[in-house]
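The step that takes the researchers longest sounds almost clerical: writing a folded protein down as plain text. Below is the pair of lines this work produces for a single protein:

——
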Amino acid sequence: MSNYTYSKPIPILRSFDEAKAKEYYVGFLGFTVDWEHRFEDNTPLYMQISLGETIIHISEHHGDSTPGSHMRIEINDVEAFCRDLNAKNYRHARPGFQLMPWNTVDMTIGDPFGNRITFYSRKR
């Protein structure tokens, strides 16, 4: 197996509303839309968003992902990120953070579609 090169996985999260997805991921969390795709007008959106080295695909296509998915993203200072998010006064989320037994500080927040992201930092 050592002859192969692997890259970071790109998770696909399910969305049901383009405007809500962009409000949450771009407006609130700070992701950038890298590209969008539709097979034709009035069909579901498939888009790529990124934040630093993190890439996520957001899909409105039935069967691409299951609502309620959960992923973890490591960040250098989750406590500062949490404060920055709360300073935005976003009406649908007021995240907090906690020290976990496995020596990380975790902040878990849910998107409008039931998916959850845990941003975390390792304690030194």
